[in-house]
Amino acid sequence: MALIDGGRAGLSGVSGLLDEVVDIDIVGTFFDLTGLSAVRLSADSAGIAIVDFEAGPPVIGGSRALRGYGRWAVLVTGRDLYRGDARRLVRAGARGVIDRDHLGRKLVPLVRAVAAGATVVSLGDRVDPRVEWVRRLTRRESEVLAAVAEGASNQEIAASLTVSVDTIKFHVSALLRKSGCDSRQRLIATAHQHGIV
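== Response regulator transcription factor ==
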């Protein structure tokens, strides 16, 4: 296992915690991928790299950076990570996303799950402030948003919810107003980007 810290002490204490686990070996704590490659971990080697999200783009900046880990499974950790962040990181190739507050007793089982091939997400229940408007949705608006995000037309949504098309238009207008989106396409993009649905 490798720890990629980014020099901000984000992973302080993790090494000590994992050192106590008999079947987990830590090869080192590194500032970035360059440091990891300095120990000659070739593309043929494999393991788990726990990466501090706050280390920034040079370390975890999208799929290109995540590909730089070769066969290593990347477990990203940080504070203020939301479901949308987790979805983007997993799509980019991360095998897990963990809130830094979960680095205590939850860490070892999550590491073992990743080692077994699972993809794990362990985050708090905070709502991303960028999508705080979601808290103000009615149950019906939430149902309509989920259907819109799946690409359903107003007619299809109306049929599935057994209401009129005019009612669906009313709900979509309310969703646009509450979200601050100026189009249905922007609403769909926002829903997927932030992991709302």
